[in-house]
Amino acid sequence: MKKFFLSFLGTAAFLWIAAFGAYGAYGKAAAAEKDTFVYGNGYDIRTLDPIATSDAPSWQACRHIYQTLIELDDDLNVTPELAEKYEVVSPTLYRFFLKKGVKFHNGEEVKADDVVFSLSRALSPAGSAVRAFVADIDSVEAVDEYTVDIKLKKVSTPFIMNLSVPWAGILNRKAVEEAGENYAQNPVGSGPFRFESWRKGDRVVLERFEDFAGPKPKYKTLVIRAIPEANIRAIELESGAVDLIYLPSTSDLLRLEGDSRFVTYRDTRPAATNFLGFNTQKPGLDNPKVRQALAYGVNVKGIVQSVFRNIGCSPAQNALPPGVIYFDAENNRVQEYDPEKGKALLGETGYKPDKLQLVTNERSDRQAMATIIQAGFKELGVDVEIQILEWAAFLDFLKEGKHDLCILGNFAPIPDPDAILQSSFHSSMARQTNYANFADPETDELLEKGVAMPAGEERKELYFKLQRLLDEKKPWVPLVYLVATQLGSARLEGVNPRSNGGGFYDFRKISFKPAD
Amino acid sequence: MLRYVTWRLISLIPVLVGVAFIVFTLLYITPGDPARMVLGDLATDDMIAEFREREGLNDPFLLQFGRYLYNAAAKGDIGKSYMTKASVSSELRASFPDTFKISIFAILIALILGVPFGIVSAVKQYSIFDSITMVFAMVGMSMPVFWLGLLLILTFSVHLRWLPSSGLDSFSAMILPSATLATQSLAIITRMTRSSMLEVIRQDYIRTARAKGQRESVVILRHALRNAMIPIVTVAGVQFGVLLGGAVLTESIFSIPGVGRLMVSSIKMRDYPIVQGGVLFIAFAASFVNLIVDILYVYIDPRIKVQR
């Protein structure tokens, strides 16, 4: 018996020493050199083919692998990237002049043929996930080796901004054709980082591209990790394994915000909105007066306080978020909570539903919002049944138009109002991304005018009018603007808090302050 | 023995076909269209129809199932991920090693600690040691994994800074996830060892061994433990089989890209080929562990003979 326990203790001691010996070496290596920037994201990437998805984590990686023809600077101006300049030949024809000598990661030069190939690929069925971005493009043609024409089906003011989104990343034709179906796992672009490895569910590792045409990043390796648990992301940041994390939990923010080792970065231009949508095709709910009355039962301020504890969000004023141009900041339209007024209005309409079905997905914040709305509607004398569905089933349910009410979110991938309003409110998008199934000729007309109108005061007035109109007709009650938040090590410099709405950031300018 | 193993492997075939049928049926009736998940919100009806046609999702249920079985049996092809286009086998090959590493380490921890604790508890029944061990075993069985995992991370990674909190980059990184994963198995094996030993040490042959003047350690380890091993090995085998199926919560807490997380993300994305292949693989792994356990019986107890 003694022998047995001695050997057991010996084994345990060996395992212990081996473990801490290894961890000690790991800790020292991590402290010695800092040419690796590690980002802790909440979700895993799905693909590295930029047109095969529109999810933010995938585009986060794509943004560093590929370059687009143009990009937006911090003031939302269009600036050159792969194209040194562009000309508007006619309202529906844009001509892009490529920079010469820009190299792909496989050594090939970026030429017009690659641009035509990449953008045409997005127009094909393979690009269904990015259809919203390419809907206005008619054709893409090479004029010569370094000049490309993009012809539009109709005049589209936001078109040029759309080209800054990662779907429009330029791929190397040869690499795509050689890799075939495996391309998503062997991406080749001309961006500041070249692809090194992707461990699904864990991390993407990118290495600095030494022949990059623009200013090179100051660190060598970019690691984007998928850490699904918010608490663990914060713990990894505290332990130094990660340098910057996306969406820390409210409790971690409260705990770490005052700590001098960390800095919080909040997106200065929130572009994501959560809303309560009415299914405007349902009898009763097709009456704007009924929707206005029911809206008085939505306690937006209560939601911000009790669901979000006033952190990481603000009450939504509008169908447009503040991160979008022509956001009407002057007119505060945060929904007023006044059940008495709502009840009286509802009485005037004679609307008496047995029960309304409010459907949302399994996100805990949305479930909590649903409960508060349910309580508010009860004050109006309207019973609400909450149904929580898993994401894929939820989308199916919405597409079939079975819901009365839904809670959902959206974001503006480019800071143009059309990017959010067209897909959310145009009648042609009903049963697609117009989850309110809203069909209003006046709204349609304004949306169609707005997309084609050149930037300027007149366009601004039109979108201000549209925001007023949507507030009156109430296909939605905007609930909260979500402020994308990051928490990072105080050693970091050059962190850009702008998330482009969906949470894909630019890490090119990040550097490390020397250790104390 | 070889004949027995071959026969057992052959008898796995109907089990796997049955599992495949159940998974197929469940996915078939689950709401949520894979075409919409893969192609995105804005895919047109034409695009969705084209995807469904290409992937054979419009075919009758039995035809889809038959084609799947034929491809798996005749070509060894269990499909490609809708999302990444990578083969299901390569996706499983990439995620299984991590699950295997923490599972094997967890079952080792459970056995190395659970068997001695169980033996001592049985030998010193109703002692303080026995009571404490049984209380811990009860706590271990009832403690939620996500809570224990976070507690271990807070203690060993954040406060003491002894161990990494995520990944499996080093041996030290395996300790916390394996310990978290081992807790329940450890509690079960401890209790099983104790009850099995208690039954055995009351037998006449143990009294005889003691009467012959044999040392207590020989009586317990050679005579009693060997006879008590069958239920312990059975339970350990079942536990190991469960662990190989992927521990979703443990893998999520420690950010380990194992089979559990692969399955959950594939279910969310309605990536049917991965879900089908994954479940088949888990069923195969569990059956294989069972087979090993059955073979071990023969070595533990020579009275057991293999037969068809």
Rg of Cα set of chain A: 25 Å
Could you say what the CATH topology of the largest domain in chain A is called?
A: Dipeptide-binding Protein, domain 3
Using the alpha-carbon principal axes, give the shape of chain A. globular
Could you state the oligomeric state of the chains shown? heterodimer
Name of the CATH homologous superfamily of the largest domain in chain B: MetI-like
Structural class of chain A comes to: alpha+beta
CATH class of the largest domain in chain A: Alpha Beta
Brief overview, please?
The complex is a heterodimer of chains A (516) and B (308). Chain A contains 16 helices and 21 strands.
How would you explain this protein's 3D organization?
The complex is a heterodimer of chains A (516) and B (308). Chain A is an alpha+beta fold and 516 residues long. Chain A has 3 domains: 8-48 and 191-266 and 484-512, Periplasmic binding protein-like II (D-Maltodextrin-Binding Protein, domain 2); 67-180, Dipeptide-binding Protein, domain 1 (Alpha-Beta Complex); 272-482, Dipeptide-binding Protein, domain 3, CATH 3.10.105.10. In chain A, 34% of the residues lie in helices and 22% in strands. Chain A has 16 helices and 21 strands. Chain A has helices at 2-32, 56-65, 112-123, 131-134, 159-162, 173-179, 230-239, 250-256, 288-295, 300-306, 339-349, 364-379, 391-399, 417-425, 441-452, 457-473, and strands at residues 36-41, 70-72, 78-80, 83-90, 93-98, 137-144, 147-152, 193-199, 203-208, 221-226, 244-246, 262-266, 272-278, 313-315, 356-361, 384-389, 405-411, 476-482, 485-489, 492-493, 511-512. A 7-stranded mixed β-sheet of chain A has the order 8-9-10-1-11-19-12, with helices on both faces. A 6-stranded mixed β-sheet of chain A has the order 14-18-13-17-15-16, sandwiched between helices. A 4-stranded antiparallel β-sheet of chain A has the order 4-5-7-6, covered by helices on one side. In chain A, a hairpin with a 2-residue loop joins strand 4 (83-90) and strand 5. In chain A, helix 9 runs antiparallel to helix 11, helix 14 packs antiparallel against helix 15 (441-452) and helix 15 (441-452) packs antiparallel against helix 16 (457-473). Chain B folds into 2 domains: 2-75; 95-307, Orthogonal Bundle (MetI-like fold). Helix content of chain B is 77%, strand content 0%. Chain B has helices at residues 2-29, 34-39, 45-54, 61-75, 88-123, 128-142, 145-159, 171-200, 204-211, 216-244, 248-253, 259-268, 272-300. In chain B, helix 10 packs antiparallel against helix 13. The chains are: A alpha+beta (516), B mainly alpha (308). Chains A and B meet through helix 1, helix 7 and helix 13 of A and helix 2, helix 5, helix 7, helix 8 and helix 10 of B.
